[in-house]
Amino acid sequence: MVKNKELSTDTENRILEAARKVFIAKGMEGARMQEIADEAQINKALLHYYFRSKELLFEKVFVGAVQHAFPSIAEFITADRPFWDKIEFFIDRYLSLIQENPIIPAFIMQEMNRDPENLVRILKRNSINFTDIATVIKQDIGKEAGTLLPISPEHFILNLVALCVFPFVAAPMIKHVLFNGDSDRYSQMLAERKQVIISFVRSAMEKR
Amino acid sequence: MVKNKELSTDTENRILEAARKVFIAKGMEGARMQEIADEAQINKALLHYYFRSKELLFEKVFVGAVQHAFPSIAEFITADRPFWDKIEFFIDRYLSLIQENPIIPAFIMQEMNRDPENLVRILKRNSINFTDIATVIKQDIGKEAGTLLPISPEHFILNLVALCVFPFVAAPMIKHVLFNGDSDRYSQMLAERKQVIISFVRSAMEKR
DNA sequence: GTCTATATCATGATAGAC
DNA sequence: GTCTATCATGATATAGAC
């Protein structure tokens, strides 16, 4: 029997928030259970009481991050609008989304490369699948073939996502190489990014 | 006095090669000194004899990886050729380079995000600086302003590198999402990538 | 230079009292 | 449910013989 349900779910949430914070900042290997416990203001042992192991706790956080990174995609594919409207909508929503949590892409990328099999396992176990999305975009591109320069749907999707995501996952290098460590100029660049990508992609794809 | 110089430099190189292999595969935190020693077919203690600590050994490997990731850039900027020749040359050389060591970008990205201050420290300590390159490209773009659509040099460089690098750093996700785990189709996509990027960027930038 | 053996420390995890 | 105390393990690093 649960003694104090309200308090315990509260504790559970505090742990999850703390874990999210620490895991996203330091990754699975870098994160310490002690630090998560401190952040949640509880004892280390409680972590194992609520979540059996570090790995299980991590999975909860990781799945949350992945799901958070792709919520607007559903809207995107189901929308019944002209092709370019959908693309611009995607770029707009997707960049806004990343900007709210700029380190999540790097987090996902880090863990994805650290243990690729585990990534696939987690995605499957949690029914996270984007193949449908790719298929829909493929169909859309097929329909628009007359007005677009020839490009395979896979390359198109790749280009789109690369242009959106890369400035965030490579942030430290970009700041140093391109802006000589000036964070303000980096931020300004990010602010311009939305319009730049839209113009760039449209121009790249339009038949002349 | 060194007893056997030839043998010891040989050992040193074996260690470096082994460390490179393990560090790049598992990252700084995931790598184990034991595994590096095994891979080099020597004892753990010898690692500390040649390189004082794990951190110093890692730095050697990391700097090597960064330098390896940007060798053709010098040729690129000093080349005295038409703008588009240089761009195409860059894309061609850069993609070939990555393809020879496909996991290096992910490695650099992982460590860059794990410890950004350390990245900057290492880059500075080893005089790795690309600001000049950015400057040269900026000048080039400025000269060609008449024939190109307006875009800031920073965004242009970012787009170029993003399109080249992203398919490699996000490889596991791409394989799963876009190709449903089919490695052959992923490889085929990479093979087409060079031409796709060249066409895409040219089309995006050309004034009509 | 290279090895074996060991020190030292930090971590994830558990036992058991309350 | 929550805590303190402790275990078990595995890691980096060092001492010291050869």
Summarize this structure briefly.
Two copies of one chain form a homodimer. With 208 residues, chain A is mainly α. The first copy, chain A, is 79% helix and 0% strand.
List the topology elements:
The structure is a homodimer of 208-residue chains.
Chain A: H1 5-30, H2 33-40, H3 44-50, H4 54-69, H5 72-78, H6 83-100, H7 104-114, H8 116-125, H9 131-143, H10 153-169, H11 171-179, H12 183-205
Helix pairs in contact in A: 1-2, 1-4, 1-7, 4-7, 5-6, 6-10, 6-12, 7-8, 10-12
Chain A binds a DNA duplex (18 and 18 nucleotides) through residues 2-4, 7-8, 11, 32-34, 42-50, 52-54.
Account of the protein in words:
The structure is a homodimer of 208-residue chains. By secondary structure, the first copy, chain A, is mainly α. Helix content of chain A is 79%, strand content 0%. Chain A contains 12 helices and no strands. In chain A, helix 1 (5-30) crosses helix 4 (54-69), helix 7 (104-114) packs across helix 8 (116-125) and helix 10 (153-169) runs antiparallel to helix 12. The longest helix of chain A has 26 residues, at 5-30. Chain A is globular, with a radius of gyration of 20 Å. Chain A starts with a helix and ends with a helix. At the A-B interface, helix 1, helix 7, helix 8, helix 9 and helix 10 of A face helix 1, helix 7, helix 8, helix 10 and helix 11 of B. Chain A binds a DNA duplex (18 and 18 nucleotides) through residues 2-4, 7-8, 11, 32-34, 42-50, 52-54.
